[in-house]
Amino acid sequence: MVVVLLVCGMSAAQEALRIGSKKFTESVILGEIVRLVFESEGISAEHQRELGGTRILFSGTETGQLDVYPEYTGTIRFEILATDSPASDDASRALLAQRGLSVSTPLGFSNNYGIAVPRSLADELKLETISDLQEHPQLRIGFNHEFLERADGWPGLRDLYGLPQHRVVGIDHDLAYRALGAGDLDVMEVYTTDAEISYYDLRVLLDDRGYFNQYEAVLLYRAALEEQPAFRAALARLAGSIDEATIGELNASVKFGDETETSAAARFVATLGIEAAAESEDTRLGRIARYTLQHLTLVGLSMAAAIIVAIPVGVVASKLPGLGWLVIGGTGVIQTIPSLALLVLMLPLLGIGDAPAISALFLYSLLPIVRNTHAGLAAIPPSTEEVADALDLGFWTRLLRIELPLASRSIAAGVKTAAVLNIGFATLGAIVGSGGYGAPILTGIRLNRIDLILEGAIPAALLALAAQGLLGLAERAVVPRGLRLRRDG
Fold first, then answer.
1. Which of 185, 285, 314, 481 is paired with 208 by a 20 to 30 Å CA distance?
2. What is the pTM of this model?
């Protein structure tokens, strides 16, 4: 409840059209193209980049946190609407309409799944089709985690082709290319417009049993937007405007050239007669300052909420021993939930942006503070309690004047531990659109840019050190002088 109150009002109502994109290069480029085209029609638009996987983007659009994002017809049919089993793309449109959503006319290209191996290995083993993989169970396979679970992914592919490989690992799509290039993997799934296919000299195996479907690029959006003439005009301008050669070239120019997603998008929309404003130059220091402010917001609000809640909870756990083990166990269970899973679980309740990240960080910060508060109070000598009884001190006087001061060192240690963990976990908030130091880290992984990864990792480490130092000073202010002298001595 406290964390919800703290994050309420943070996101003021936005009039700008909210465009989302997934965390791969083509989606980000398409998001920028969409933004520029809508702005050319007089629609104010903002692009929230690299929000993670399909479920995050779709959930955000369905709940009104986003207005539009690039998607693919096969993903809509076989992933988003898998439980409804639509028989065609038209059936998918009808099911989406029931949720207040719609799909644009195709943008002009398809980006289909494929299975690829290094060309040298394909020549050595005479691999031409996916069926040829049946004869080589020793091959090491790495698939994107989403592909491993999708209805149109690995389970169906394995069953249709009778593939015997058991050395299948889940790995980020961009990292899989690097693993393949380094010789650590033999087989991976690709998107057929990926620039990496030619860069790493891969052979896309023929889908000889026709497993993979067509994945036409479209825009998935809230149907209510169709009431705006400018929105309809922008969709008409985008329809059929991008062919496969063009999107492949744009992908390559960003992944292996000097262009940004924004400059590549501007170069493309110029072919549609749209003159985009020059991309504003963003210095590294300017970016780090922006990321720092975002990160401090996530950490500050979640830690404030955790301290407000966790210390009283720790007190209750110490005063009611029968309840104490349940409280400690409950906060411990929260700590065992994988951070990405906890973020995704927050999305249906809080949407995308700062709110789910702050709420998840709040929950992760509870255990160290609750546990240390409980431990500090439990460690108070019985003789001290006897003195308090002899003086006939009331509950609140005893707690505030004796017990909490004596437990303050332990509580301060819990707060420091929670803060350092919080700063590290906060980098994952970028996946749900909260920004912070995770934003350059995600982009750096996607573009294989070590400098961008360090742009987020180094400030995060420095912030953790700074937090340790500042909380150490704060500890000196709250811990009674006698206890400090005892520790220093």
1. 185
2. 0.79
